[in-house]
Design goal:
By secondary structure, the chain is mainly β. It has strands spanning 4-6, 13-17, 24-29, 35-41, 44-48, 55-63, 66-74. It has a single domain (4-74), classed as Immunoglobulin-like (Sandwich), CATH 2.60.40.
């Protein structure tokens, strides 16, 4: 799985590209570990983040037995 999550920083939405048609699970967490978004994705999906507060978030994408993680900035605040 060649994962891409963009734009970073994001304002209105994020795009998740897994490069695979297999179903994957996308989870977005705030800095203290609260689950903010959880959804099933495949290949390329666009998710709205405009309701989230500005800040740094962590994501995990699970597909079959593989896990990839990263961080993304939401909003324009630093």
């Amino acid at each position: 799985m060649e994962l891409k999550v963009y734009p970073n920083p994001a304002d209105q939405y994020i795009v998740i590209e897994t490069g695979s048609s297999l179903a994957s699970t996308f989870k977005l967490f705030d800095l203290i570990g609260n689950l903010m978004i959880a959804t099933e994705i495949s290949d390329k999906e666009q998710l709205s983040v405009k309701e989230l507060k500005a800040g740094v978030y962590y994501y995990k994408v699970t597909s079959e037995s593989r896990l990839q993680a990263g961080k993304i900035m939401i909003g324009t605040a630093v």
